[in-house]
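ugh ok fine here u go
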Amino acid sequence: MNQSANTTRWIPTRAAALERLGAFLPRAARQYQRLRNHDFGPGRRGNVSLLSPYLSQRMLREREVVTAVLSRHSYGEAEKFIQEVCWRTYWKGWLEMRPQVWSRYQAELGRLQCELHENESLAQRHERAIAGHTGIECLDCWSEELVTTGYLHNHARMWFASIWIFTLDLPWQLGADFFFRHLLDGDPASNTLSWRWVAGLQTRGKHYLARPDNIEKYSGGRFAPVTGLSSGAGPREEPQRDEPLALRSADRAAPSGRVGLLVLDHDLHPESLDITRVDAVAGLSLAADRSPLESSRLVVNFSSAALDDGLARARAHFSLEPTAVSRLRRVEDIVGWATAGSIDTVICAAVPVGPARDRIDTLRTELAAVGKSLLELRRRWDQQAWPHARHGFFRFKKHIPAILDPSGDLFPPVTGQV
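structure:
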């Protein structure tokens, strides 16, 4: 199971992200459409963009990536890649209108993590799967690749989840948690809902069964023959039907008094937020809080370094002295930072449903108790896209051209807030 030494590395800076975007642009159209489903293995990722860790933390913004692609290719030529960028947006919008799905997943995950301490059989099967000791060669290689690189090809993620659920008969929630703790591009919405989709819960009755011939074909023959996979398992079921709720209203009040910008590692392009004056900036990484279990050091270190890069850009953009920029260790430190700096209004990029959401809601209450306000700025991209995520992606994708170009012009260059 030794992986190639020539594995991809992600440098956690916006400059590196822009460089990778530039290198990918010539391949974003027909070549991407033709080869995107192929998982050639670590070190052979020229068929995909490898931008997802940067997009997930918004070191790159979705609109600027799509605008760059459309500067080189027509919408028709690049439609498949644009749709892949928009899948992450769609999942976020879907979960924003169904936060109970996240809450239920968290409750089930907590129960299962307790069960791991009580059910020896489950604990052993779970440990073999995450350690890459199942005896299923492809799954074991993917486990090792995930843990050692923080990345898996999207097709491999689907195969992995299917084998985990239907062949190993492990709870999908534990698999989703394993991914979330190790993926550099881990996103609570896309990760959780993709696992639900494979299980047959997201689209009721429609699950994804990994097939040996499909794995052999799209892995470039690296795994052949693939044996022992379940071929007749049915979809998982749950009694709930989750209808969409009203989308949570975006904060619209104007900041007052001294303004402090809080930079979190879900959105690391503070210089494009719709704010003109900042008196102080604080940064906080929540990567270690993804799960009750331990997050990967790769994830924690990547997010921490990416946050430093974001803070440096924020300081330069808002022309602040070094003493006006702080690194915080805990959410609990934010009120103290705001108090010490005589901050009246704390501003941050809107936090979507996920591990940080409840903590930010609590922070809002704690700030209000000491006479301070919290404003979350929702990106225009999200504001335009999320309302269309009430149903399936097929309906959502019909709105993509309007999301990209709400003015009705032909995809002009985009500047300012995105």
